Amino acid sequence: MPAWLVTGGAGFIGSNFVRHALAHSDVRVVVLDKLTYAGHLENLADVADDPRFHFVRGDIADAASVDLIVREHQPRALVNFAAESHVDRSIDDPGAFVQTNLVGTFVLLEAARAHLARLDEAGRDAFRFLHVSTDEVYGSLGASGAFHESTPYEPNSPYSASKAGADHLVRAYHATYGVPSLITNCSNNYGPYQYPEKLIPLMTLNAIEGRELPIYGDGGNVRDWLYVEDHCAGIRLALERGRIGEKYNIGGKNERTNLELVDAICAALEAAMPAAENPALRERGIAGYRDLRRFVDDRPGHDRRYAIDAGRIRSELGWRPGHDLETGLSATVRWYLENRDWCAAVQSDYDRGRLGLAGG
Q1: What pLDDT score was predicted for residue 354?
Q2: Phi and psi of 326, rounded to 5°?
Q3: Which of 39, 100, 152, 343 is the most exposed place for a label (fewest CB within 10 A)?
């Protein structure tokens, strides 16, 4: 049975992809994850007993460990989700982002190159290296337009710069060494198992607890939102049917300002857990979730707008998102309401306080 090596598979998108791969592909899934603050075995508890699942704790920047894992499991594909991903944290500590996102990707590419050299012709033809990236590498859009695969890179944060550098390495290893690679660039993901520093779980959990809902700047920054299961389906299609050396943008075509999104979260919460029945709000004398909104100082270098043109993956691979923002957000809010034990477990060392003010 062929194996896929999934790095960062205990994180948010990675763990959702592991479940998706086990459900939709006849493969073994080997997860390599360092288990940092955003990677948790709790994210994989429901697949831990699957005989096709195997977990290894390790660092993608540790060349010796990566080489051993590749030699042992002989993967037919390497799917790289492993990344430091929170922009605010990259402002506070850019070095960690360079080490994981850039150096780690380099180590994986070197391991893939050595692995290919050991394979026969059929094995080399079957192997794929898929690197999962972000729309943030493209920079900031004006009021109109969308990012295409050919859009020039203009990263504006240490996070997006580290991911841009990794993208360029993947491209270069294909052009120089023939590593059969693909790159996917996605818009903002949301859904189950997302670490609560990100906007949607942060706002959801703060609102449930009657805490303030901090909105950066004027709340007018625009993002395109993509339900994580739809993203995982796109990655699998790219891995199985995508053209080697190609890039595929994956976006949900669900643009909202941050303020509009917070209001939508409040509406979804009102439907699932009416404010009048929430003891945390009653204690504070607050009638509705929207009353918790507070505008705070903007993030340094905050990109104004992102939007993805996903025409290539739609036309070439037949990908379509299965969720609009209303259905996806409703499902996400319900998931956080129903999985408070998970929320408590993964937040043991994080109080949802503001990060990323070092540049302000």
Answers
A1: 59
A2: -65, -50
A3: 152
- Asked if 18 and 27 count as a contact pair (C-beta separation under 8 A), the reply is no
Q: Across the chain, what does the average pLDDT equal?
A: 95
More confident residue, 349 or 89: 89
Angstrom distance (rounded) from CA 111 to CA 61: 11
Active-site option among 159, 193, 216, 306: 159
49, 53, 235, 38 alpha-carbon torsion, rounded to 10°: 70
Question: Can 277 be counted among the known catalytic residues?
Answer: no
Total H helices, total E strands in the chain = 14, 12
Domain count, the chain: 1
The pLDDT value recorded for residue 360 is 47
- 136 annotated active-site: yes
pLDDT for residue 110: 98
Condensed to tens digits (0 to 9), the pLDDT of residues 116-167 reads 999 999 999 999 999 999 999 999 999 889 999 999 999 999 999 999 999 9
Q: Give the Cα separation of 149 and 310 in Å (integer).
A: 9
Let me know if 125 is a catalytic residue. Answer: no
d(CA 51, CA 40): 20
Instruction: Check 59, 84, 136, 167 and give the catalytic one.
Output: 136
User: Is residue 310 domain-resident?
Assistant: yes
Tens digit of each residue's pLDDT (9 = 90 or more) over 78-108: 999 999 987 888 999 999 999 999 999 999 9
**Assigned domain for 112 exists:** yes
Residue with tokens 């100082």: 297
Structural domain boundaries, residue 242: 3-190+225-255+305-325
pLDDT value for 350: 65
Q: Is residue 229 part of a domain?
A: yes
pLDDT at 351: 66
| d(C-alpha 166, C-alpha 101), whole Å | 6
- 93: CB partners within 8 A, 6+ apart: none
Q: What percent of the chain has pLDDT over 90?
A: 89
Tell me, what CATH number does 102's domain have? 3.40.50.720
Q: Which one is catalytic: 59, 84, 88, 135?
A: 135
